[in-house]
Every structure is written in C-alpha cells, then in structure tokens.
Amino acid sequence: MNSRTRVFLTVLSTAVGGSSLILYTTISQDILFKGLSFCSSSVQELVFGSAAFFLSAVVAGFISTLIVVKDNVLPLVFISLFVVAKIFLFTACGQWHGPIWFETGLNLSHLGGLWLGCYGAVKFPLAPM
C-alpha cells in the first residue's frame, strides 16, 4: 500500500470512527435513555445506559480499525486524544451533569471501548488483510 492510500485511509478512518462514536453515543445517551444523568436517572437506566455508552465505543473502534485494514492504530490514537481533551475541557468549564467521577468514568469507558473494538477487529477472522 502506498503512502497516499495509507494517509487517506487514516484520515477516513479517523473521520468515520469519530463520527460513529458521536452518533452512537448520542443515540445511546440522549435518545434511548432520554438524557442519561447521574442525578436524574434510575439505577437501572444508569447500568444499561453506561453499558450502551461502552458498546457505542466498541462499535466505533471496530469500524475504525477495519477501515485502515487493521495495521494502523493512528486513527484510534487521534480519537482517544479527542476523548481525553473532552474530559479536560468539560472539567475545566464545569459542564458535567453529575459528579466528576461518574462522568470521567463514562469517558474512560469510551477509551477502553475504542481499544477493545480495535482488538476485536484485529482478531476478526473476516477482516481484510
């Protein structure tokens, strides 16, 4: 694979992976669970909403890794840096809807889910070489 193709796939994978992470997170947090919040949601909603939040990151990491033909983790590094920057920015601006430990845990589950999705895509038997 030449360098132009590799750069194109890296940019495409970062854009698609980041967009799918935002889309699936919005669907799981705002549409399915009607604004998941530590203060206003029930325990059952928190458990299922947190699991859906994690699974959205797993799917995004899986999709992103399959696009770059599973030999390049640079898109996941960029998406992970975006999530870490979001944690610091929201903490500095006070934009959390609940306790900092809960919101930070949700975003750290995003990081873990992204990398678990990457691992799943690498081990996926039908992935392109």
What does this structure look like?
This protein is an all-alpha fold and 129 residues long. It has one domain (3-123). It has four helices and no strands. It has helices at 3-32, 43-67, 74-93, 100-123. Helix 1 (3-32) packs across helix 3, helix 2 (43-67) packs parallel to helix 4 and helix 3 (74-93) runs antiparallel to helix 4 (100-123). The longest helix is centred in the first third of the chain and has 30 residues, at 3-32. The N and C termini lie close together (11 Å). The mean pLDDT is 87.
Our measurement of the CA-to-CA distance between the termini, rounded to an integer number of angstroms, reads 11 Å
Structural shape: elongated
**β-strand number:** 0
**SS field, number of helical segments:** 4
Mean of pLDDT: 87
Helix content: over 70%
For the CA atoms, what is the radius of gyration? 16 Å
Please identify the oligomeric state: single chain
- Provide the structure class: mainly alpha
Largest sheet: none
What is the string of SSEs from the N terminus onward?
A: HHHH
Strand content: under 5%
Query: Number of folding domains?
Result: 1
Report low-confidence residues grouped into runs of 5 or more. none
Tags for this model:
129 residues, mainly alpha, 77% helix, transmembrane, membrane
